[in-house]
Amino acid sequence: MPLTRTEKESIVDELSKHIKESRVAILGGYTKVPFKKMQELRTLLKAANISNKTAKKTLLGIALQNHGLAADELFEGDNSVMLTLGSGDEVTHAKTIFDFSKKLEGFNILGGFIDHVFYPKDRILALAKLPPKQVIFGQLAYAVAYPMTGLVGALQGNLRNLVCVVDNIRRSKE
C-alpha cells in the first residue's frame, strides 16, 4: 500500500533530524543482498555506534536537499540505498562499511558526507584504508620523538668516548 503524503513528510522529517545530528553520513547501495547479510551489517554498525536508515531514494534525496546536500547522481541505477549515520570517527565509520562491502557482493559505497561536505566514493574508500586514529597518533609521536632520541644518542656517544679516553689515561698511569 502506497504511503500517504503525511507519512512521507514524517519520514523526510525524521531523516532530516538524523542527518542534522550526524557528523558523518555514508551512503551505501545494495542490490539482491540477502536479509541475513543486511542484519549482520546492522549488527556491525550498532557495535560501532553507527545508525542506519533505509528509505525510498526520493525521500532520502529530499531529506539531504533540506540540508543543502545534493547527492542525486548517487541515486541513479536499480539499487537500494542505505544511509549510515554517525557522530564519531569518520575513519572507523568508513572502515566498518568498507570491510563489510569487501565480504559481500552486491553492496558498495556510493559516497558520503563528512561535516556536511560531500565526498565521492574514491575519497571515502581512501579514508577507509587509513590506519586507525590511535595508530596515526602513535606514528606522529614517534616522528616527533625520533629527532630527540637521535640527539640523546649522539650526546651519549660523545660522553661514552670521553669516559673511554679518561679510562685509558687512568690505565696508562697505573
Per-chain topology:
Layout: H1 5-21, E1 24-30, H2 35-47, E2 51-54, H3 57-65, E3 80-86, H4 90-103, E4 107-114, E5 117-120, H5 121-128, H6 133-173
Antiparallel strand pairs: 1-3, 1-4, 2-3, 4-5
Largest sheet, in brief, is:
5 strands, antiparallel
Question: What order do the strands of the largest sheet run in, or round the barrel if closed?
Answer: 2-3-1-4-5
Mean of residue pLDDT?
Answer: 83
How many helices? The count is 6
Output the CATH class name of the largest domain. Answer: Alpha Beta
CATH architecture of the largest domain: 2-Layer Sandwich
Number of domains: 2
- The helix content, as a percent range, equals 55-70%
Total number of strands: 5
Regions with pLDDT < 50 over 5+ consecutive residues? Answer: none
Please summarize what this structure is:
Helix content is about 60%, strand content about 15%.
Structure explained in plain terms:
By secondary structure, this protein is α+β, with helices and mostly antiparallel strands. The chain folds into 2 domains: 5-130, Ribosomal protein L10, N-terminal RNA-binding domain (Alpha-Beta Plaits); 131-174. It is built from 6 helices and 5 strands, in the order αβαβαβαββαα. It has helices at residues 5-21, 35-47, 57-65, 90-103, 121-128, 133-173; strands spanning 24-30, 51-54, 80-86, 107-114, 117-120. It has a 5-stranded antiparallel beta sheet with strand order 2-3-1-4-5, sandwiched between helices. Strand 4 and strand 5 (117-120) form a beta hairpin. Helix 1 packs across helix 3 and helix 4 (90-103) crosses helix 5 (121-128). The longest helix is centred in the C-terminal third of the chain and has 41 residues, at 133-173. The protein starts with a helix and ends with a helix. The model has no long low-confidence stretch (mean pLDDT 83).
